[in-house]
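Hi support team,

I'm filing this because I wasn't sure whether my run with pyridoxal-5'-phosphate finished correctly. The job status page said complete, but I'd like someone to confirm that the output block is well-formed before I use it downstream. Pasting the exact inputs I used:
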Amino acid sequence: MTTKTAEILEKQRDHLWPNHLLYYTEPLPLDRGDGLYVWDVEGKQYLDFFAGILTTSVGHNNPRVNKRIHEQVDKLLHTSTLYPSENHVELGEKLAEITPGDLDTFYFGTSGTDADETAVIIAKVHTGYQEVVALRHGYSGKSPMGMALTGQASWRVGGPQVIGIHHALTPYCYRCPLKMTYPECGVACAADVEDVIRTSTSGRIAAFLAEPIQGVGGFITPPAEYFAIVAEIVHRYGGLLIIDEVQTGFGRTGDYWFAIERSGIVPDVMTMAKGIANGLPLSATATTPEIAGSMIGAGLTISTFGGNPVSTAAALGTLEALHEEAPPARTAAVGAHLRAGLERLAEKYPLIGDVRGRGLMQGVELVLDRETKEPAPKQVAVLFEATRALGLLIGKGGLYGNCLRIAPPLTATKDHVDEALEKLDVAFAQAQETV
Ligand SMILES: Cc1ncc(COP(=O)(O)O)c(C=O)c1O
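And here is everything the job wrote out:
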């Protein structure tokens, strides 16, 4: 460790709250990035296959994004939502070109938490109902309502703080909560949404909120037909379907701009953040002009930083880069290459219980025994230290802390994928020995 790393870690300990979750036994201060690579303060290079939690969507220092940012920084830094600005409205126009159906109006905020909060508020205003159903294993953010919507105890710091939120079974096929097998199950878990509404709510709901692939939950990937079944139930009980595309949006899952499109349904409200601006703080809540119209007369709303000119400039650059460098069809192809490589590793290492996900959002669940499926979080820790030493950054998650989350910038090439797979192979060999 150099003096520089030691200094940063000491200041972190002295001045930042101790609840900041830091990866690795010795936390890793990053210094600069370029494309698919980042360097730590000691000059060591890493291939970035987590993209700052699926956020650096078009690679570090992407010239299309940075040019827009530089131009805007020299022009005007801040307006607040009290004044219309060109970037703000242009971003709405450009997003409307890729959002499904008539999800053509937006409220811009600063984080995924903000976007999900905004979505629930509009659902309550529009329907006149208060209760919300979310999914177990889901993640919705760090505000009191975000934590209440979240379906994992460890992320609910301070205890449940918002009433009227209920959780249905999650479509987690590898660990089916109903102990059934897909497709013979007929996606029976979807019916639990109706059971929850009928048993735990007042019978009418404002919304059902879920991620198309549960990110923090460990890339839990529901069967494609799940959301069509749930949409019918939710609408029958008066609610809006809110789909959280914070991790899955902007082509991350391949083939489509938004993951929910694969289910053939259009949600009533959709939230996005992370990859929208390649790392600048920005989020968006999308809905139809009709639903957005319910906010007229409902009360006053401002967002000081929402739709900030620099963040929206970055988002315009990011969209341009996505169209030019990393459209969904390309992500599907590079993602298939990654998936095939992970499946080859699964043939080699019994530690791998499940490989799942779509596009460049691939999860690997580690188990001590494929029969009992006993989670292997200690082996994830071994794998983490090994990949770090080999110069590869990946993510982790899951209720049991035993899932790898592999999600590079969407500009990754098949060569980058091969480089990552080689490093993972070496790291898995080390982790497998510890079982
Ligand atoms: C699906 C999902 N929704 C919401 C959030 C909250 O986003 P933020 O951390 O930007 O508040 C996250 C963050 O990881 C997320 O994964």
